[in-house]
């Protein structure tokens, strides 16, 4: 059975200080998918993520979640509507403990979700082990797990991951990819990730959009994603 469209982006245009970056982005994400957005540096991938979550205003076009327009909605309210965002660089609260960071994520939903903390600890046992540790003293890979766990505490139906492999050693990258696939399979959470790491893309994504010069220029299916040369070509154009 074909799943419903969760996120529908139509002719999206946005940029910085009047300088256009996104120049008519169109794509759809169906519920329960894991979809990657790839492309070389500077083509607008992170700008896309910031515009989807509301950190950058939409200049034109529309962003629709289950058919409801989000264009004029603040980032905070988009989070309340069920969108979680893990930014490039993670942005954990360094002076707060791991548990305190997770509680911040819980507050996003507006109400505690029963059993959610135990669920996060099951997927990311290092977070339970380090619950009292200051987040800023953790390794990059541990901070990335915390950033994802913090978002999951709000029980989102869509997670936006911006360069989740950045600054993380390869074995932890693969572990995070495995956990995200498991989360998707067991909970149905939808994931959109911007990524350059070929191994992470191939491990996680069910299909992939390719960006160039502020637009979506190609779509790759699962079979094409298994061809490293195909992905590498799009990452190096």
State the CATH topology. Rossmann fold
Q: What is the number of helical segments per DSSP (H or I, 4+ residues)?
A: 10
If you compute it from the alpha carbons, what radius of gyration comes out, rounded to the nearest whole angstrom? 17 Å
CATH-level-4 superfamily name: P-loop containing nucleotide triphosphate hydrolases
- The appropriate CATH architecture is 3-Layer(aba) Sandwich
* C-alpha geometry: globular
Mean pLDDT: 92
Please indicate the count of domains.
Answer: 1
- Report the β-strand fraction as a percent range: 25-35%
The largest pleated sheet is described as: 6 strands, mixed
Structural commentary:
- The protein has 237 residues and is an alpha/beta fold.
- It has a single domain (5-236), classed as P-loop containing nucleotide triphosphate hydrolases (Rossmann fold, 3-Layer(aba) Sandwich), CATH 3.40.50.
- Helices cover 38% and strands 27% of the residues.
- The protein has 10 helices and 10 strands.
- It has helices at residues 45-53, 75-80, 98-108, 116-123, 125-129, 140-152, 170-187, 198-204, 222-225, 228-236, and strands at residues 5-16, 19-30, 34-38, 60-65, 68-69, 83-86, 158-162, 190-194, 207-212, 215-220.
- The protein has a 6-stranded mixed beta sheet with strand order 6-7-8-3-9-10, with helices on both faces.
- A hairpin with a 2-residue loop joins β9 (207-212) and β10.
- The protein is globular and about 45 Å long.
- It starts with a strand and ends with a helix.
């Amino acid at each position: 059975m074909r799943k419903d469209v969760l996120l529908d982006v139509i002719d999206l245009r946005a940029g910085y200080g009047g300088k256009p970056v996104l120049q008519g982005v169109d794509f759809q994400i169906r519920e329960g998918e894991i979809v990657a957005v790839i492309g070389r540096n500077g083509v607008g991938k992170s700008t896309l993520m910031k515009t989807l979550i509301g950190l950058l205003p939409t200049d034109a076009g529309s962003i629709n979640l289950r058919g409801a327009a989000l264009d004029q909605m603040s980032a905070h309210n988009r989070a309340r509507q069920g969108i979680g965002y893990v930014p490039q660089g993670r942005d954990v609260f360094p002076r707060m403990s791991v548990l305190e960071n997770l509680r911040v994520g819980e507050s996003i939903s507006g109400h505690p979700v029963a059993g959610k903390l135990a669920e996060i600890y099951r997927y990311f046992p290092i977070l339970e082990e380090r619950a009292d540790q200051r987040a800023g003293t953790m390794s990059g890979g541990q901070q990335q797990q915390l950033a994802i766990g913090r978002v999951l505490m709000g029980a989102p139906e869509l997670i936006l991951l911006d360069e989740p492999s950045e600054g993380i050693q390869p074995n932890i990258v693969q572990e995070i990819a495995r956990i995200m696939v498991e989360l998707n399979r067991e909970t149905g959470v939808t994931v959109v990730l911007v990524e350059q790491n070929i191994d992470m893309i191939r491990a996680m994504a069910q299909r992939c959009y390719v960006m160039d010069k502020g637009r979506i220029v190609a779509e790759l299916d699962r079979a094409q994603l298994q061809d490293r040369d195909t992905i590498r070509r799009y990452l190096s154009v």
